[in-house]
Amino acid sequence: MTSPESAETPSVPRQGRTATLAEIARAAGVSAPTVSKVLNGRADVAPATRSRVERLLRSHGYRRRRADASRSPLIELVFHELESAWAMEVIRGVERAARRAGLSVVLSESAGRHTPGGSWADQVAARRPHGVILVLSGLDEGQRTLLTSRSIPFVVMDPAGDPGAEVPSVGATNWQGGLSATRHLVELGHTRIGAISGPTRMMCARARVDGYRAALETAGLAVDPGLILDGDFHHEAGYRLGLDLLRRDNRPTAVFAGNDLQALGLYEAARELGLRIPDDLSVVGFDDLPVARWVGPPLTTVRQPLTEMAEAATRMVLELGREEKPTAGARMELATSLVVRSSTAPPAA
Amino acid sequence: MTSPESAETPSVPRQGRTATLAEIARAAGVSAPTVSKVLNGRADVAPATRSRVERLLRSHGYRRRRADASRSPLIELVFHELESAWAMEVIRGVERAARRAGLSVVLSESAGRHTPGGSWADQVAARRPHGVILVLSGLDEGQRTLLTSRSIPFVVMDPAGDPGAEVPSVGATNWQGGLSATRHLVELGHTRIGAISGPTRMMCARARVDGYRAALETAGLAVDPGLILDGDFHHEAGYRLGLDLLRRDNRPTAVFAGNDLQALGLYEAARELGLRIPDDLSVVGFDDLPVARWVGPPLTTVRQPLTEMAEAATRMVLELGREEKPTAGARMELATSLVVRSSTAPPAA
């Protein structure tokens, strides 16, 4: 009994060892240099040939043997969008770790990227970097194959969703962070604590709110689903949902804001309603962006070590590149820590 | 009569046309491929040979003929340090313009850069980018020669000091910005207006304070040198110098803070002294970072179009690359504009 794939290409071995370039060429009915051209992202290959070769590379799990000398001294850093307020912290960490390894950083944005020179992944493959770091951005099946067949390792940083067990990734202890933020409020004496979450499609947002729930439950406090609102991690959501929470008759005396930007939106809502922080309302953020220290009052928040996470992701991708086989499923989580400033206090008597 | 340089290398023409690669090779006593290797940043050239060739390239103003095909689809973006609060705005603009041109962005930091692979400029030369954008960072003579001899154009963005008349650069109308910030305060009725400047070695800081002075003088108000303090564009300076200004018996009723970060430091100083903004103190910033909208009260500031400036610098460097001879001394200044929010009001009666 044969699987559809092996029936399609009987001349290429499927098990035990990976196919050679010559075998892929024979199966595709092209010369070995043509397969090479496809691997190197060269433009002078007919589209039909190219996609036939790509299909075979994928179905046979072809993996180019590494030759460090042929790699460019580059690391690719890819953001879904460069709008993120904490992109700078990440860039700094990757640049620092790359520099230590003698590499330069190519920065790009994957959102809406359709350039004349082919897809984003084609361009990356043609540059032959030492590795790729993806921030809040996954890879589709085709992109993954493209990188894997060129033996270009990749690591996902702070995945928005579930990166899949086999994808190496670096994150922070989001659940633990939500837990300690909320415990801090409980210990100050708050019993009516609201939460503004990030988008529910982001695992990190879910983990933070789950930590919030766990803190309430372990303290013997009821979790009121009406006090948990879904935001999107932007300032505007903190403002809008903050107004919603704070205008209620039985308003919360404290809010875990999900991230720092939402906390700042919540500050604005409180100002507009004439509520003083922390006297009338305690606020805890998440991230510890530089701005958290600068707002009035300085924000109590959960520090996410973004620069260190980015450095760790860079080291991880370089380690993957040095090994014969990448460690599948490597997942690293760096610890978060509560930074107590002036936006939290016991509830008014 | 001959100059020392031409006496040193009599076989190479100095005037009328630039030296050819073969002529440089003959003068250096090496083969043309060796000169080529030096130009391409290859490691397999003896250091003594390399520096002899570099010296000749410099003294004869050698300029490689452009061959677009041999260039990598890259733009280099170089920060002196990645610490700048507005680096993200610049990165976004360069990325946007580069993407439109089908190019990717290599990001690096020039401060303290000593990598095993040679100097920063050597690495840039070896990558053969379409151009280099330097942010708050100049080039020394050797780096400039290295780029010029490879026909790699460069543009300086928002120069901290005087970039020199022959260096293409993009900035903002800093003087005009300082003028309109201060005029706004004068029009509100303030007569005792302080200023916290950036570092005096930065031309942009000087220009802003000169605009402040011009606004006072044209309004018939005396300029009190004791009300102008030199900061460094960081939050801490705004706080420290803010305390200095606000603790005086005859304290100013308004302050032009030089940039947004110093304005936020000034906010903190005012909070600490129990002064309300804008009731007791009006504050104007400069830059219009995203945070200016989020602080309490939202900050009146001078918008510097950083993303547009970065896009303009990218377009300029690509234009320079397309011309046979770069336009020496191109300098572009984009307009600043006053954004009035809630941190300014008439002085208390």
TrEMBL record, chains A, B:
Q: Which Gene3D superfamilies match?
A: 3.40.50.2300, lambda repressor-like DNA-binding domains
> Which domain of life does this protein belong to?
Bacteria
Q: Which residues form the signal peptide?
A: none
Q: Does the record carry Transcription regulation as a key word?
A: yes
A Pfam match: LacI
Q: Which residues form the HTH lacI-type domain?
A: 19-72
The GO molecular function terms of this record are: DNA binding
**Which keywords fit this entry according to its UniProt record?**
DNA-binding, Transcription, Transcription regulation
The protein here is known as: LacI family DNA-binding transcriptional regulator
Q: What species was this sequence derived from? A: Streptomyces fragilis
Recite the lineage of the species.
Answer: Bacteria, Bacillati, Actinomycetota, Actinomycetes, Kitasatosporales
